[in-house]
Amino acid sequence: MKISELQVKDIVAIEDGRKLGYITDLEIDVDKGYVVALVISLKGKMLGLFGKEEEMVIPWNHIVTIGADVILVRTERPKTLPDGYNYPSQ
């Protein structure tokens, strides 16, 4: 799958069905060669004087499924983190 194909999919929280926004970037572990997290632009959230959109980081292991039109994600953080992983500050 190409990044451009992911960028057009709605990101939806499974907890409440909210549409969160769209993928704007990926966090990649270049040493290990895999995607660590999705960076999404939150729908309708604007900050600052220049209209910069608010972003949210979704760890890759919070992706439930990637469908034809949507990516379903968990937005609640688990009580324990996988070894070697720290949540980025938001």
Q: Summarize this, please?
A:
The chain has 90 residues and is mainly beta.
Give me the side-by-side strand order of the main sheet. Answer: 4-3-2-1-6-5
**What is the CATH architecture term?**
Roll
Number of strands: 6
- At the first level of CATH, the class is Mainly Beta
The rounded Rg comes to 13 Å
Order of helices and strands: HEEEEEE
Q: State the separation between the terminal residues, measured CA to CA.
A: 27 Å
- Low-confidence segments, given as residue ranges, are none
Net shape: globular
Description:
Residues 2-75 form the PRC-barrel domain. InterPro entries: PRC-brl_dom, PRC_barrel-like_sf, Spore_YlmC/YmxH. By secondary structure, the protein is mainly beta. The protein has one domain (3-73): Roll (SH3 type barrels), CATH 2.30.30. Helices cover 6% and strands 50% of the residues. The chain contains one helix and six strands. Strand 2 and strand 3 (34-47) form a beta hairpin. It starts with a helix and ends in a 17-residue tail after the last strand.
